Every structure is written in C-alpha cells, then in structure tokens.
Amino acid sequence: MIRIDWKKLPSFALAGVLMGTASLVAVPHGAALAQPAVSRGLPDFTELVEQVGPSVVNIRTSEKVSARTNTNGMDEDMLEFFRRFGVPIPNMPRQQRPQRPQPDEEQPRGVGSGFILTADGYVMTNAHVVEGADEVIVTLTDKREFKAKLVGADKRTDVAVVKIDATGLPAVKVGDVSRLKVGEWVMAIGSPFGLESTVTAGIVSAKQRDTGDYLPFIQTDVAINPGNSGGPLINMRGEVVGINSQIYSRSGGFMGISFAIPMDEAIRVSEQLRATGRVTRGRIGVQIGQVSKDVAESIGLGKASGALVTGVEAGSPADKAGLEAGDIITRFDGKVIDKLADLPRLVGNTKPGTKSTVTVFRRGSAKDLGITIAEIEGDKPASKLAEREEKPKASPAAQLLGLSVSGLTDAQKKELKIRGGVVVNVAADAAARAGLREGDIILSIANIEITGVKDFEAALAKLDKNKPVNVLYRRGEWAQYALIRPSK
Asked: Which of 14, 69, 285, 327 is packed most tightly, with the most Cβ within 10 A?
C-alpha cells in the first residue's frame, strides 16, 4: 500500500490526485485551478405548450363558388342552348353528361392559425389568411367550432382581427418586444399543412429586419410552413411577442428563415381595427430615397443616415411646410431617422391632424420645419415635362462632366413647381456613368442651388476638377443625388 504525505505533495500533484488523472499536470504554485465549463441543456418547452396551447386556434376559410360553370369551362346558358336544340357539345366526351346547375356552394379556401387576444372572443391572425373569404371558421383546442365575424384587416401590416361569440376564453399574454434579444429561444404553435396544434422552436435570428415600409420584422429560424400563418411567436416566459407571417423560401416550404410581425406593432393595428374596423395612417407627401455614404460625405452630412427627399407632392403637407427635393430628413418629432424605413413608420404611426416637426439637412445646415400630418392616400401619377428651349453648346467645364444643359422657361418652372434649375440636354461620359440622362433637371451642384444656366456655369467654375461633385437632379416628379467623377 502506498502512503501519500499530503503536506509534502506539490500542488500540481495534489491536483492530479484529486481529479483522479493518470498523469500529473503541472500547475504553477499559487495559480487557481480552471473551473469546468457549465453545461447548458436545451430548454424544455412542455410547460409553455400547456400554458399557451389552449389560446392558439385553427382558422379555416371558405368562399362561395358559382356552379354556373361546369368542369368543361362552359357557361350554363350556353349548355342550355345545346340541350334544347340537340346540338353536340364541343370538346366534351359523349359519356360525360352536363349536369344541371347547382346553387352556389361553399368551397374550402385555405387553412391558417390565430390566437385568442381577449377572453370575450377577439382573435388575431394574418390579413392574408382571411382575405377574400366568405366564411371563417375558428376551431379551439377543445374542438369547439365557431363561425367568426371579420372585424377588420390591414394589408399593409398583414394583421387581421376576427370575433367569435364566446366568453371566458384563455387569452394570451402579450410580451414586451423591446426585451426580446437576438439568440433568445422562441416557440411557435400553429397548423402547418392543416396539422393542428403543431409546436416548433428555434431562436431569434435578427430584429428590426426591413422587408416593408411599416414593419420591422422579427427574423427567426423557427420552422414555419403554410398554415402556420397567423399563429403566435412565444418567448420563454409564455408571452406572445409576434405573429408568424412570412418565410423566405425558394421551394414553398421552410428553408430556415421566418419572419414575425412584432406584437407591439400588431397591437397598435388591432386597437384601430376593433375601434373603427380600419387603420388610418399619417402621410406628409414625399418620395424618399436612400442616402449613400459618398453622397453623405460630399454634402457635409457625414454619416450615411436619414431619408433623402426625392420628390414633394404638390399641395401636400410637405409642400406647405416648405420641404424641397434634395432635403435629407434627419429627425421626425425629435426621433432620429437612422435608416430610410424609419420615416414611413414614424409618420404612418402619427395620427392625421397632428402638428409635428421635421428636421432637414439642406445645403450644409439643419433646419426645423413645422408640418401637419395628413391621412395616407394613393400616389399621384407623375407629370410630363413640357417642351424645352433650344439646346445651346456645352461649356468646357460642363463638357468635363459630360453635360450639356439649357434653361427652363417660366411656364416649365410653374408646371414642375420649382424655382429654378437647368435641364440636361446631353449626359455622356462622367455624367452618364453617374446615372444622369437627357431630360433630367439639375437643381443643385456641390450644395449650390441652381436657378439657371448662369448659376450652373458659375458653380462649375468653382469646382476642383480633380474631385467628385454631388449633383441633385430631378427625374419626373422625384429627385435624387448623383456623384459625378470628372473625366481625366
């Protein structure tokens, strides 16, 4: 038997004996032993399913299909003509006898999912699930079926609310989307391919994913398939944080990328739908574009942020407030416009009639403009440019940029609703590479407003011929920036 004197044993040997290793590992005297990594197992979703499962519903829709057209695609009136006169029906086998018309019948249209928003029967789902349906049937987990009434649907956000005649229902708990973190576990319950109460799980892949004007989607890797639409996205606290709405797919099935409507956005829409049956959104009447890094640096903005005003609708709130094509909107009611999609969301969520403040960056400085929000409406068609003046010969400075321009008449300025500018007669070489073309209206060069040909030539004379120059131009009703790099 071997006896060990623990007091004389070196620290590295003591470590080896205590850990039961076959070999001794040298550990410097006084150094702390490394702690074994904590093993984290996969989460258990069973309690969540029991908690939230009864709140998830299956939604089945149907539509009325007219029986006046048979399988041969021929109208019933035409069939009656052939019957009465004993004329053979074209393209129909003899053994196939046309049937008499049947009353309009309800035909299955689609299957989706939803969840109980309130105990008194309000159910939330996707707008595309109930769109075009003549009948909506909601089935609870206890197999009770209800014919639902459509309260309202909003196509822009893909949110819909339906109502069933029931009380004491298990409503979901709505979570705080701002607390949701990338990498967090989430779960979905729905009816993929009509398979009711199917549970899938994954993690949050990204937040604020831009796929539309009014929704910063939650991206996940939770398996979502046709039929899951309208079902809840649930966090580990059993709270609904989103509505499963879209998938990225080349095959029609799940490919690892799913998108959910954030619950805070959905609740805002549902409150309006329940109150009035429709959603009203604010508008200011501008067309906007992205601000590139090169443009931001060339005009002195620095960071590529904000929304570039490419056009202002005549008579719109923006027009009345004094916004101009070429302005870069950097703030709305004090909130920073970091990226293009921020502006339509902020404006859209503002109640029409509200007096707001827009901060714009214009020719090197910031300016606050008061604006009254209007209600959103359809876009107006672009107006055509009138006949232009005779095309003069381009100056040497303009030729260096590949441009030949001419002035606008007062009538043209009035039609286009602009104070000045010059029209491009020729866009070649450097100008063509920058994207300009004949018919564009140049409004400013290097942050200098252009009122006519003289201003244009004066601005060109001041340019460094070896450096790129920013040009604000208008095409149709919309304006945008281009960066022209002079030909060597």
From this structure: 327
Residues in the chain: 488
pLDDT score recorded for residue 35: 55
Residue 409: CB partners within 8 Å, gap ≥ 6?
Answer: 386, 389
Q: Do residues 353 and 480 share a domain? A: no
Judge whether 221 counts as a catalytic residue.
no
Please report, in range form, the residues annotated as the binding site for substrate.
128, 158, 227-229
Note if 29 is an active site residue.
Answer: no
pLDDT at 246: 85
Determine whether 128 is an active site residue.
yes
Whole-model pTM: value is 0.63
User: Using CA of residue 87, residue 89, residue 90, residue 92, what is the dihedral sign?
Assistant: negative
Domain interval for residue 347: 282-375
Are 331 and 469 contained in the same domain?
no
User: Can you list the positions of beta strands (E) in 66-183?
Assistant: 105-116, 122-125, 135-139, 145-154, 159-163, 173-174
Q: Of these residues, 128, 213, 292, 395, which one is catalytic? A: 128
Tens digits of per-residue pLDDT, 25-52? 445 555 555 555 555 677 899 999 999 9
The answer to whether residues 273 and 335 belong to one domain is: no
Which one of 55, 205, 229, 316 is the catalytic residue? Answer: 229
Looking at 154, 158, 327, 440, which residue is catalytic?
A: 158
What domain count does the chain have? 3
